[in-house]
Amino acid sequence: MSAAVSVSVHRESAGKVCAILAEERRLSLHDLYRLRYPTQPVLSPDGRLAAVSVVSYMEKENERVEHLYLVSVDGGPTHRLTRGKAGGHAPAFSPDGQLLAFLSERPDDPEVRALRKEDEVAKPAQGDEKAKDKAQVWVLDLAHGGEPRQVTCADEGVQSFAWSPDGREIAYAARAPKDGEKAYLKAIREDGGPLVLRRVQHKKDGEGYLDEVQTQIFLADVESLAVRQLTSAPFSCRLPAFSPSGDAIAFLANCTGDEDQNGRTDVFLITKDGESVLRLTHGDVAAGLGQEPPAFSPDGRRVAFISPLGPENGYLVTHLMVAEIADAQPVSSLEAALGEGFASIGGVVPDGSAQDPVAHARVYPVPLQASKIQLLTETLDRPVLGGLRWTDDRTLLAVVADRAQAKLASITLDRDVSYLAPEGPQGTVVGFDARNGQIVANISLPEAGSELYRVDAAGAARLTGFFTELLDGLDLPTMERLDVVAPDGQIVDAIALFPPGHIHGTAVPLIVEIHGGPMWFDSPGFEFDDVYFAQRGYAVLKVNYRGSIGFGEAFCRQIQGKWGPIEHADVMAGVDFLLARGDADPERLYITGFSQGGIMTNWAVGHTDRFRAAVSEHGMWEYVSAFGTDDCQLWWQDDLGVPWQNAEAYRAISPASGAANIHTPTLITAGQEDWRCPLDQAEQLYMSLRKRGVPTELVIYQGEHHAITKPRRAIDRLRRIMDWFARYGGLPSEADAKAGYPEPQGSASPI
To answer: Alpha-carbon distance 731 to 747, whole Å?
Structure first.
């Protein structure tokens, strides 16, 4: 890797002390509006240009937006394509490179709007967050310029799309409500009609209550805008991908007839005329995890996809799999495929007791045959995250989680695996694309932010400067990778950030920040929050506890059905490591985390008093009451069975089991419409602490789901964390104390 993009950690001279912080420019909360974060890079067919979607935040509008840029792969200037509030994402070049298609939630083109049957369109209720324009496919003419042109007008919006090899058509997936379903949608959205729920998975975070409308595959003519519905299956068909010849389209579908109670997603093929359907897998895989479409080899003989070996078990390594088109089996029709190929569908948990209530509740479909697949990563013991790209008929590129880094890997049909980027222990790959011998990757580095790089045998050459303005003149924290020994002898990876100029052996306040998932990991890249905390004088510790992916399947599976004690021991081992080295002040230890990190924060304060204060963000408290109110019923069932048959196990690993031991002042945040970690979980925690006299506050972000989406709320969140820690002996928030939303007048009680 070139010196300009070296991943080595820059350390200030030994004589520089933390007091110099006051003289250096540091991140302010307002700098969030200067952040530009590139995602989804795609290459033109000739490999000379890359299109990338860049996330930024509008202060006045308080909105997150994505805009499209063109990047020259030979190092030329970067050109912005879209502006305004609408923007665009998911870019894709046409096969001749002359057009760039993308998804955008902008208002309909008046010429296209006339194609809609307005009386059949179910309009969201006024004031509803879903009243935003639906995502449609738009096309920019890169050769001649001009405004983008709308290609689709799907009433419920487009989920994903793919160009045909000749560039004349676009296949897309969209919800396809039938007449009766349209009437129901119109009633609930416009007239406040009752929600009638029939699905087991009846709600999903960010989407709301779920209906029974199926997603289907459509073909749109790019010039005439004529649309033909290709599938009319009694189940959803998603993520279309054209074969290299253009004669067929691969897609993913769960044809069990009970998709809410299993993870069995198969790969199908349908000819472009809709006359012939083939099935490549047979109910023993969960193809397409992470919304990854199937990927055809250049010769059209194979299809690649990712899946674990156990479709319902999220702790298993996800593998790169390849199926031969020649092994596909014909299906008489998609209607006939419903439930076909299974000895039983399962789903209903039988009554009665069993020695093992977890196994008793695992009532999943039983396929009649095994899929004929090549398992290319069988010996890797590292999860394939996605981004599948064939470079030739025998080689694919993919992103693989290896320890704390997402790496770009080359994987062959002979099962040879080699890593291409990043080099060294710092940095992580966020996305990539490969075309015509060129590779571009979006790599996040702690000292450079997230930028686009050209990757070749010489290393990685930086192409963009989206973070230049934000980072210019900043005195950045130092980052260190740690190997921590847990109490049981397990070596656990951790990442530590220290204030600029920090000298090892100087004790500073410590923020322990716990990642979500739990099946995810903290990476040694650039994170706005971490830099903000460290520049204000805190050390930040991020432990990749048991359950984190990228460290082997056995490492991850140790917490299945056993959340709490093991992860907590790993995290505290990291704290002890920094204390023993003299880098953390034992009197000023703080802890926080979001989602699973919030859960583990709740567990920590119930099992140790070592932290001066805690911030629990969007976490969980009592698991029996979570079942059926969150959107994770299948996950609970696979881990613990069902609560009426295994309530003791649910309660044993719930953070609520430690309620009587909590003395740590704890700030709690929650999304009002969070259905991953529902609001009532935060309310139960809040009431438990209030009744016991533990200092606490509950902050509810109105209309927010699990993730924080509004920039002003993101700023408010960071300000509250800093203020809460400062209240209990931490470092002051300084000028940023006024950022965020106003506080209420008065206080409820002196507790």
So the answer is: 23
In total, the chain counts a number of residues equal to: 751
Do 360 and 495 lie in one domain? The reply is no
Indicate whether 2 pLDDT > 50: no
Residue 327 inside a domain? The answer is yes
Residue 137 maps to a domain: no
By the 10 Å C-beta count (0-12 exposed, 13-18 middle, 19+ buried), 498 is classed as: buried
Domain closes at, from 339, 367, 386 = 386
Q: Is residue 362 part of a domain?
A: yes
The pTM assigned to this predicted structure is 0.94
Instruction: Tell whether 368 and 478 lie within a shared domain.
Output: no
> At 130, is the secondary structure helix, strand, or coil?
helix
Angle between helices 633-640 and 643-653 (to 10 degrees): 80
Containing structural domain, residue 236? 230-386
Question: What are 152-186's pLDDT values in tens digits?
Answer: 999 999 999 999 999 999 999 999 999 999 999 99
Residue type, 420: L
Pairing type for strands 539-543 and 508-514 reads: parallel
Q: Are residues 522 and 373 part of one domain?
A: no
Provide the 8-state DSSP code for 185: H
CATH of the domain at 562: 3.40.50.1820
Alpha carbon distance 468, 68 (integer Å): 18
Q: What residue type is assigned to position 417 of the chain?
A: V
d(C-alpha 509, C-alpha 12), whole Å: 20
Give 345-382 as a 3 state SS string. CCCCCCCCCCCCHHHHHCCCCEECCCCCCEECCCCCCC
Say which range, 75-89, 568-582, 658-672, has the weakest mean pLDDT.
75-89
Q: Parallel, antiparallel, or unpaired: how do β-strands 169-175 and 438-445 relate?
A: unpaired
β-pairing, 63-72 vs 78-80, is antiparallel
Burial 153-182 (b: 16+ CB within 10 A, else e): bbbbbbbbbbbbeebbbbbbbbbbbeeebb
**Cβ–Cβ under 8 Å, residues 195 and 214:** no
206 within a domain of the structure (yes/no): no
689-710 pLDDT per residue, tens? 999 999 999 999 999 999 998 9
Say if CB 244 and CB 296 are below 8 A apart: yes
- Structural domains of the chain, count: 2
591 plus 728 within the same structural domain:
yes
Write b or e for each residue in 72-105: b if 16 or more Cβ atoms lie within 10 A of its Cβ, otherwise e.
ebeeeebeebbeeebbbbbbbbbeebbbbbbbbb
Report how far residue 436's alpha carbon sits from residue 454's, in angstroms, rounded to the nearest whole number: 13
The amino acid present at 96, given as its one-letter code, is D
> What does the block give as tokens for 553?
């399947």
In tens, the pLDDT along 531-575 reads 999 999 999 999 999 999 999 999 999 999 999 999 999 999 999
Distance from C-alpha of 413 to C-alpha of 381, rounded to nearest angstrom: 17
CA atoms within 13 A on the CB side of 677: 27
10 Å CB burial of residue 269 (0-12, 13-18, 19+) is: buried
Q: Answer yes or no: are the C-beta atoms of 135 and 105 closer than 8 Å.
A: yes
| Strand, coil or helix: 648 | helix
- Percentages helix, strand, coil for the chain (3-state, rounded to 5) are 20, 30, 45
